[in-house]
Design a protein that fits this description.
Beta-Lactamase
C-alpha cells in the first residue's frame, strides 16, 4: 500500500480549514466587538461634547422662579448645537418640555419603546440607536449648579454625522480584513510544517498497518495450508464478505472487522492435533468435541491484540447456525453477531464452489440450490436473499482469479476500510 500524497493533503486540509474558519470567526468577532465598543465610545464622546456645549446655566435658569418653560428659548439653544431633540425633566423625573429640530416619527417611537433610567447626580447616562442607516446617541445629564444643587435633567438626542459613521464602518471593515489576512497567512505558514509532521506519522502508521495486515494474511495462509486449503480461499471470502456488507450499507469499521475475520476465522486450528485436523475419515464424537475447541483457542489467540481482536465476532461465531443448532454457544437468529452471519454465508459458498482435497467443486447452480435449502436453518434468510442474486457475478470474477489478482483487489479494500 502506497501512501497517497493527495489523501494526505486532503486529510490535513479537512482538519486545517475548519480550524481556520473557527479561528477567523472567533478573532473576527472579538475584533468586531472591540471596534464596535470603540465606535460607540467615540460617538458617545461626540454626543457628550454637544451636550456640554449647551449653555447649561441658561437651562438651569429655566427652572427658577417656578415660571413656565420657555420653549422658544430652549429651541434656540437646541439650534445652537448639533442635537436633534432636547427634553427637560424636573428633579422628580417629570417631563417639562420637549423640542425638536424636525419631526421624526420613527425616532420618537424608538425612544418611547426604550426608556432610560435617570442617572445619579454627578453622573450621566448614554445609549445608542440605529434607525434606517442613521446612528443616534442619547445622553441624559443632571443639571446642577456650582453648589451641586439639582435643578432637573436634560436629555439630548445626537445624530452622528453620516461621514463619521462611514469612517467608523471603514475602520471596522479594515480591522476584520486584517484579522482574516493574519489568520490566513498564519494557516499558510503552518501548512507545510503540518504536512511534514503528518507525513512522517502517516508513513509510520501505514507501515504498522501493512505489518498487521501481513500478519493476518500469513496466519490465515498458514492455517489454510495446514488444513489442506490455499490462501486464495481467505482472499475470496474476504472479498465476498466485503461486497455483501457494502450492499447492506455497513460501516467501514464493520467491513474492516469482516476482512480481519476472513483471514483469521480458523486461526484456532493451530491448536488442533494433526491426527484430528487431517484425518481423512469422519471424526468420532470425542474428536468432534476437540475440533470444536478451535473456536475458543482462536478467540484466546486474538484477544490480547487490539488489531486482531476486531475479528472476534467472526472467529467466535462463524460456526453458529441460524436455527440455534451450531456451536460453540448454540446462538440463534439475531443473537448471532451480524458479521458472523455474513461470513457463514460466504465461507460455505466458497467451500462448496471450490475443490478441496476431500471433494470436487460443486457447480455454481448446485451450490446455490444447496444453500437455498439451508435458508433459515444454517443461514440468515434475509442475508442469504441479498447474497444469492449477486453471487454468480461475483463468482465469475473471483473464482478463476489468481492469488496475485485477488491480493491486489483485496488491497484496494484494505486501503479504504483500514485507514491509517
Amino acid at each position: 500500500m502506497e501512501l497517497p500524497r493527495s489523501s494526505l493533503h486532503r486529510t490535513i486540509l479537512a482538519r486545517l480549514l475548519p480550524a481556520w474558519v473557527i479561528l477567523s470567526l472567533v478573532l473576527g468577532a472579538a475584533a468586531y466587538r472591540m471596534e464596535s465598543l470603540r465606535a460607540i465610545g467615540n460617538a458617545t464622546e461626540l454626543a457628550s461634547q454637544e451636550a456640554d456645549r449647551l449653555d447649561q446655566a441658561r437651562l438651569r435658569g429655566l427652572f427658577e422662579g417656578g415660571r413656565a418653560m420657555d420653549a422658544v428659548a430652549v429651541k434656540a439653544l437646541l439650534q445652537e448645537s448639533r442635537l436633534k431633540q432636547l427634553r427637560l425633566f424636573d428633579p422628580d423625573h417629570r417631563r417639562l418640555l420637549e423640542v425638536k429640530t424636525e419631526a421624526d416619527p420613527e425616532l420618537d417611537q424608538a425612544l418611547a419603546g426604550a426608556p432610560m433610567a435617570f442617572p445619579a447626580p454627578g453622573s450621566r447616562k448614554h445609549s445608542t440607536l440605529r434607525l434606517s442607516g442613521r446612528y443616534y446617541v442619547r445622553v441624559l445629564v443632571p443639571l446642577q449648579d456650582a453648589a451641586h444643587g439639582l435643578h432637573g435633567y436634560m436629555e439630548g438626542i445626537y445624530l452622528v454625522p453620516p461621514r463619521t459613521v462611514r469612517v467608523i464602518e471603514a475602520r471596522i471593515g479594515a480591522t476584520l480584513a486584517m484579522v482574516l489576512m493574519v489568520t490566513t497567512l498564519t494557516s499558510l505558514l503552518l501548512y507545510p510544517i503540518i504536512v511534514s509532521l503528518n507525513r512522517g506519522s502517516l508513513e509510520l502508521s501505514r507501515r504498522l498497518l501493512e505489518g498487521v495486515v501481513e500478519l493476518m494474511r500469513v496466519l490465515g495462509s498458514a492455517i489454510a495450508k495446514r488444513d489442506g486449503d490455499t490462501d486464495t480461499h481467505n482472499y475470496r471470502v474476504a472479498l465476498y464478505a466485503t461486497r455483501l456488507a457494502e450492499t447492506m450499507g455497513c460501516s467501514a469499521t464493520e467491513i474492516a472487522a469482516l476482512i480481519a475475520g476472513a483471514f483469521l476465522h480458523d486461526v484456532g486450528k493451530i491448536g488442533i492435533s494433526d491426527n484430528i485436523l487431517l484425518k481423512p475419515g469422519p471424526l468420532t464424537p470425542e474428536e468432534t468435541e476437540l475440533m470444536h475447541t478451535h473456536v475458543a483457542i482462536g478467540q484466546a489467540i486474538i484477544a490480547d491484540s487490539r488489531w486482531l481482536s476486531r475479528a472476534g465476532e467472526v472467529v467466535g461465531a462463524h460456526h453458529e447456525w441460524f436455527d440455534g443448532s451450531g456451536y460453540p454457544k448454540g446462538l440463534k437468529g439475531p443473537a448471532i453477531p451480524f458479521n458472523a452471519r455474513v461470513f457463514a454465508i460466504v465461507d460455505v459458498f466458497d467451500a462448496l464452489t471450490s475443490r478441496r482435497p476431500y471433494k470436487a467443486a460443486f457447480p455454481l447452480e448446485q451450490a446455490i440450490g444447496m444453500m437455498r435449502m439451508d435458508s433459515g436453518r444454517h443461514f440468515d434468510p434475509e442475508l442469504l436473499a441479498r447474497f444469492l442474486p449477486m453471487a454468480p457475478a461475483w463468482y465469475e470474477r473471483l473464482h478463476a482469479a489468481g492469488s496475485e489478482d485477488l491480493k491486489a483487489e483485496l488491497a484496494a479494500s484494505i486501503g479504504i476500510y483500514f485507514p491509517t
